[in-house]
Amino acid sequence: MSDQLKKKIVKEIKVDLDKCIGCRACEVACSGFHATPKYSSFNPSRSRIRVVTDMLNDVYVPVRAGEYTSAECTGRHSFKIDGKQYSECSFCPTSCPARDLFKEPDSGLPLKCDMCEDIPPLSEPMCVQVCRPGALTYEERVEYRDETPSLGEMEIGLQALVDKHGMQKVLDSFARMSKKG
Amino acid sequence: MRYAETGFNLEVDLSSGSVKRVATDQKLTELHLGGQGTAAKILWDSVSPEVEPLSPENILIFSTGLLHGTPIPGANRTSVSTFSPLTNLYVNSLMGGWFGPELKHAGYDKIVVRGKAAGLVYLYIHNDNVELRDAAHLQGKGCQETAALIQQELKDQKIQVAAIGLAGENLVNMATIEHANSSASRHGVGAVMGSKRLKAIAVRGTKDINVAQPAELWEMCNKKYQEIYDNKNCGDPMAHDHNESFHVDNFAWGNARTRRQGYWNKEREEKWVAKWKQVRTRDNGCYNCPKDCHYSISYPGRQKYFLKCFNKLTYSMAAFEEIDFNYDILGLTSAYGLDGFSTPQVLAFAVELYEAGILTDKELPEFPSDGAARFFYLLEKVVRREGIGDVLANGVYSAARQIGNGAEAFDHNTTKKVEQVPLKLGVINYPFFLMYCTGEKMNITQIEGSFPQAPIADAEKRKKFVENWDAAPERFKKWYLEWEPRQHMPIEASVNVCDWNEAMHYVDDALGTCAWLSSFRGQFGGSPPYHLFNLPKFISLATGVDLDPDGLLEISRRNRNLVRALNIRRGLRRDVEKPPEDHWKKRDPEMEQKHLDAYYDFKGWTNDGIPTRDTLGELGLDYVSEDFIQRRILTADDGTSSRETSAGNV
Questions:
Q1: Which residue among A25, A43, A55 places its CB closest to the CB of B207?
Q2: Is the per-residue pLDDT at B426 higher than 50?
Q3: Cβ–Cβ of B289/A23 closer than 8 Å?
Q4: Which of A3, A116, A118, B337 could form a Cys-Cys staple with B176, CB 3.0–4.6 A?
Q5: Residues B139-152: what's their mean pLDDT?
Q6: CB contact under 8 A, B288 and A25
Q7: What is the pLDDT of residues B210-245, one digit of tens each?
Q8: Dihedral pair phi/psi, residue B294, rounded to 5°
Q9: Alpha-carbon torsion (B178, B183, B184, B187), positive or negative
Q10: What residues does each domain of chain A span?
């Protein structure tokens, strides 16, 4: 079995909320690293890591930009941790319509953390490098995953469409979409 | 393209309700850098010396530093420059936090506020959208609450707010402008904001700031984070040190009167640390700086607030109370927006007047008997300007004269009408004498800082110190090596020390770099992360303006003389340039005046402290000397002081 598993290096940034001092150096560094040319301009609004703060209530959460979604979630949680109130948004990495976090300020296009992929690779993502108080630390770990594609799930989806619209309509749509490329 | 700065100021006229985005002249950046340097130029050009500080004609300027918004760590101090109702002179008060960088990202280097709104308003800046909004619902609200309400109202937690509290609204001369974990606290800048009926400024910015030499600048900055974090001689050690003996045993308690040597002991330390553990929630930093010099406090029954610097002790010491009282009353004064240096002294001054029978039960009906209750009682009167509080709210100097009946004798700790640090020492120290006399900021912590306060007794250690002293120009190394305990340095050395100490503050105040990383910290350990010899490179890489240490000093000198000129035009002269009468027990009036003569001479000022025509000319400030000549402050022929106008009346 194990010979079918693929070795993966998972890059991880660990966050220690207690160590964050709210300085936002991570935002400065991220925006500079991703500027063109590199480090030519700085703008926390373009950063793919943001520190969500409510300082007087002692909420400091560095959160990294993840996937884009076109729909905001419903029924958000609110968490109470060590007596402090956090909204689910405080931890959420999604670029979503409910907030302006993780969107390019000019275009509104979504931003996503790429762990500062570079040639040659950085020793650590830039946000971690500048976080001297140690709220952000970088780790790599190895995972083995079975990545054999499973067609079953797609077929379930297609069958649902056929059931609803009929085979011909689905085929027509599929043909039209293929032409568009 | 402009690097490091935006090239635009936001001009707001509250009387007419107009806002304008005005392009600035890059030449002024080369002459003054930014921050208070360019602010002083605006004040010189736009506010005539007759203007009353609390009148609509006065201008209130919020300046970013030249390096705000660049990646240079610790560039985050915002300058608030205006004319002070406390002194009737120029004031430049600074606050840390996030305000300046956010303003720059909104596309402005400065906000220049003039006029007076019809009702209470706040200014909301979101990039190019700027609006004045009604603030009637915020009237009387605390500074921190105001910020939270504005963020809620505008549905954006990332908005940075600078706000006044009740003290600013009521034009109290100790009123601050509070922002996040910081405040611009000096000389009543909050009252000027209150006089304009401006409750708050809320800023949100999402624009880029460009730098001239990206790769090289970033490499230097990336190293600097680590260096600043590791450097124990920078940042605010008071935020982390629980041994308070230096301050409580050596600084004076009450109305700057009583030294309590031996007050500090193990048992007290344990009690104070236990209290700190109970109320302190977290240490935090300012924008893009790895130091955590501020901390949040949650005191039962009070609103939460941030604590910083010497504020941790001032109220307790002024009221002769234990530390619990300090945490308690700061919950109120932070909300009211009151300066933690001057306010405790004003309250202690009132207590002394009561003890002396100058203030009586008539002015202070049902005045409590213990220190804490008295302070709470007086605080409410002052912040509301009720009864005698209306007089005390003007500060010790003016209150003493208004009360009269011998009260003047109790005003023993002010210079130029400003309450000084409560410090009473033995033998005069000439560099400090000069700093107290001539500093335009009037607060010693804003003037001292690069040259150590005292010599090192051990010659070997002294040598070692000097060897590692990269921040110091060569001549200071020699003077320090030769400085033996209980000796005075030569006059020339004292003059240079005063000048260098002050010059570095003028550098910081133009760049927006924090004094804890630079101008204030060199005196302790001699290794500030930023100094005369490494800042020019940072500035050049960020801005594209070529600069070396001499060039930086020249700009500092230009800004220094322009600030001097603002005050000279408002009447400042030699006659008020003196330290608090009893600051030192052992004085030497003749030697003191020799030092002052030498200092004025070194600065290129007349015997009366006025920059000469030659001095101003060398700095490209001919327009200042022309104005001085027109006003007969200087004479036309030789550029020296015209004696008949030298009396001065500040």
A1: A43
A2: yes
A3: yes
A4: B337
A5: 98
A6: yes
A7: 999 999 999 999 999 999 999 999 999 888 889 999
A8: -115, 155
A9: positive
A10: 2-146, 152-181
Are both B24 and B115 inside the same structural domain? yes
| Averaged pLDDT score across all residues of chain A | 92
Nearest CA in chain A to B224: A130
Q: Classify burial at B618, counting beta carbons within 10 Å of its beta carbon; exposed 0-12, middle 13-18, buried 19 or more.
A: middle
Q: Are residues B189 and B288 in the same domain?
A: no
| Nearest beta carbon to residue A43 from set B206, B288, B298 | B206
**pLDDT exceeds cutoff 70 at B646:** no
Asked if residue B295 lies in contact with residue B283, where contact means CB atoms within 8 angstroms, the answer is yes
Element (H, E) at A49: strand A49-54
Contacts of B217 in chain A (CB under 8 A): 39
So what's the ipTM on this one? Answer: 0.95
Contact residues, chain A, for B181 at CB < 8 Å: 55
Is B20 among the domain residues? yes
Within 13 Å, how many C-alpha atoms sit on residue A52's CB side? 20
According to DSSP, the β-strands at B160-163 and B252-253 are unpaired
CATH number at residue B165: 3.60.9.10
Say which residue, B649 or B198, is predicted with more confidence: B198
Total structural domains within chain B: 2
Integer Cα distance of B426 and B587 in angstroms? 9
Which tokens belong to B352?
Answer: 């002394």
Q: Which amino acid is at B62?
A: F
Question: Which residue range forms the structural domain that includes residue B130?
Answer: 8-204
B315 and B181 co-located in one domain: no
What CA–CA distance (Å, rounded) separates B353 from B392?
A: 11
Please write down the HEC assignment for all residues of B473-509: CHHHHHHHHCCCCCCCCCHHHHHHHHHHHHHHHHHHH
